[in-house]
Design a protein that fits this description.
The protein is of the alpha/beta class. It folds into 2 domains: about 280 residues, P-loop containing nucleotide triphosphate hydrolases (Rossmann fold, 3-Layer(aba) Sandwich), CATH 3.40.50; about 240 residues, Class I glutamine amidotransferase (GATase) domain (Rossmann fold, 3-Layer(aba) Sandwich), CATH 3.40.50.880. Strands 13-12-14-15-23-22-21-18-19 form a 9-stranded mixed β-sheet, sandwiched between helices. A 7-stranded parallel β-sheet has the order 5-2-6-1-7-10-11, with helices on both faces. The protein has a 3-stranded mixed β-sheet with strand order 16-17-20, covered by helices on one side. The model has no long low-confidence stretch (mean pLDDT about 95). Bound molecules: glutamine. The site of glutamine has 10 residues, from β19.
Length: about 525
């Protein structure tokens, strides 16, 4: 462990979903803008070992790290705000902690000792902090604790972060509590009582925070210094350690709003490292607020149109591309189960994102077919590439072409299960996951888009294109434009006759950054603009 490493622990109070993750990531972005090396970690109370088997409709997108972990969407925020690649150990759920401990106990590692919540679970939690700082060689490590303070299921994390300060020194730990301050419309006032109560809960566990972030139920910066004063008096922090955060129009405004809201004073008391250079964020927010005249409509043909968090990285990647190209983006949600030709016709370009299971797949294949036949810009991501291949094979003469995932028989299975994946369909952490390299065909559109022929994207799939059907797929209008280095797996396809019809077996959306659009998304927006 580096002596100089500092730790920031971010807890939440009153209700969940007030942007604790965004605030934690924004603090990270500010510290990085000061020139510090920052790493981040999430501790989540739930018992699933990872997010891979969680229903994305309930839990939002499953974010895949470069090393192949299936994680919570918060890690996507961390990557977009910090511009650092997380690892599987950037998230620890209670399930993963307990599994690690119980496996160790079963293999006899405890030598007859009783294994207990304190100190064994808490020590393991603390070890994850240290392992992360060593891996990233960080100056500051930020830990976000999922849920709200006082939840029974999160107590081991709260106890671990409290006790940690006695090990590394209280001066090396900064406790940030993000709580919600509701606005009562009838009496026209903010109510601080729930926030006071959550801070009292935190104190009961032995933590007096160094900074309180009050998320306020208003969109403008409120003229409400009395709120800061009140929270400070009741909560044992100085007034300048209370940061008022109104709702932001875009999450990418939060780093700047946090600076405006006074986050620098308590941060500087903790770690003195000069002024942050926020120009990257200022430039981004200027692009977001520029309000261009020209609008581009992108249809997202998807299964979960009622929880758009399911496709968070895709929608963020589209926004980034629109900001870069300088157009106003209108994302049109097309329900894959009900999609009609007129829906495809009404938009300037189409994205078919990743997905699992047969529901809605015919609508996605119809979208690919429409784009192929009508020269409409198309970007296929993972399942979106498989749907494009199915569409082309059907046009190319295999009338019942389909994926084995959706019941295709021999002779029709233009997409089939990868070697070694049989029988693993509902198991966790067993897909082809994380970064894999691919070779792009020289002179292909794809190589031109990437500006390279050796590329890497993150993956999460069990099925692959069946190259026995290449003739029919090509007859249907597609060409393979990239494969795994040994040629065995199809990684990229394109339609030579279309202006912009491209797809990949990977998930480029995970590598898009708000200030650095991914070329495949940028290409789609440019083509749709035409
Ligand atoms: N269900 C498909 C497969 O497993 C596609 C996966 C995805 O889109 N991430 O290969």
């Amino acid at each position: 462990m580096k002596n100089k490493t500092k730790y920031i622990f971010v807890t939440g109070g009153v209700i969940s979903g007030v942007g604790k993750g965004i605030m934690a990531a924004s603090i990270g972005a500010i510290l990085k803008a000061k020139g510090l090396k920052v790493s981040m970690q999430k501790c989540d109370p739930y018992f699933n070992v990872d997010a891979g088997l969680l229903n994305p409709r309930e839990h939002g997108e499953c974010y895949v790290t470069q090393d192949g972990a299936e994680t919570d969407l918060d890690l996507g925020h961390y990557e977009r705000f910090l511009d650092e690649e997380m690892t599987g150990d950037s998230i620890w759920t209670s399930g993963k902690l307990y599994k690690t401990l119980i496996d160790a106990e079963r293999s006899g590692k405890f030598g007859g000792k009783t294994v207990q919540l304190v100190p064994h679970v808490t020590s393991l939690i603390q070890k994850t902090f240290i392992d992360n700082t060593e891996h990233f060689d960080s100056d500051v490590h930020i830990v976000e604790i999922g849920g709200t303070v006082g939840d029974i299921e999160g107590l081991h994390f709260i106890e671990a972060i409290r006790e940690f300060s006695t090990k590394v020194g209280r001066e090396n730990c900064l406790y940030v509590h993000v709580c919600f301050v509701p606005w009562l419309a009838t009496s026209q006032e903010f109510k601080t009582k729930p926030a006071q109560n959550s801070l009292r809960d935190l104190r009961e566990f032995g933590i007096v925070p160094d900074m309180v972030v009050a998320r306020m139920d208003v969109s403008e910066t409120p003229d409400a210094p009395h709120i800061a004063a009140k929270l400070a008096t009741f909560c044992g922090v100085s007034e300048d350690a209370v940061v008022l955060m109104p709702d932001a129009k875009s999450v990418y405004e939060v780093p700047l709003n946090a600076v405006r809201g006074g986050v620098l004073a308590p941060l500087e008391r903790f770690i003195d490292h000069g002024e942050p250079d926020m120009s990257k964020w200022e430039k981004l927010v200027a692009a977001i607020e520029s309000d261009p005249k020209e609008e581009v409509k992108i249809g997202l043909v998807a299964k979960y149109v009622d929880n758009t968090d399911t496709y968070l990285s895709v929608t963020e990647a589209l926004k980034a591309a629109a900001w870069k190209v300088g157009v106003k983006l209108k994302t049109v949600w097309i329900n894959a189960e009900e999609a009609k030709e007129s829906d495809f016709e009404a938009v300037d370009g189409i994205v078919v994102p990743g997905g699992f299971g047969v529901r809605g797949v015919e609508g996605k294949i119809a979208a690919a077919t429409y784009c192929l036949k009508n020269n409409k810009p198309y970007l296929g991501l993972c399942l979106g590439m498989q749907c494009a291949v199915i569409a082309a094979a059907r046009i190319g003469g295999i009338k019942k072409a389909n994926s084995e995932e959706f019941g295709a028989e021999e002779g029709e299975n233009v997409v089939y299960i990868m070697e070694g994946q049989e029988g693993k369909e509902s198991t966790g952490g067993t897909m082809r996951l994380g970064n894999y390299p691919a070779k792009l065909v020289k002179g292909s559109k794809m190589a031109e888009i990437y500006g390279a022929t050796d590329v890497v994207e993150r993956h999460r799939h069990r099925y692959e294109v069946n190259q026995a059907f290449i003739k029919e797929i090509e007859k249907g209008g597609l060409k393979i434009s990239g494969t795994s280095p040994d040629g065995s797996l199809v990684e990229f396809i394109e339609a030579p006759k279309c202006d912009y019809f491209v797809a990949t077996q990977g998930h480029p959306e995970y590598r898009s950054r708000p200030y650095r659009a991914h070329p495949l998304f940028e290409g789609l927006i440019k083509a749709a603009k035409k």
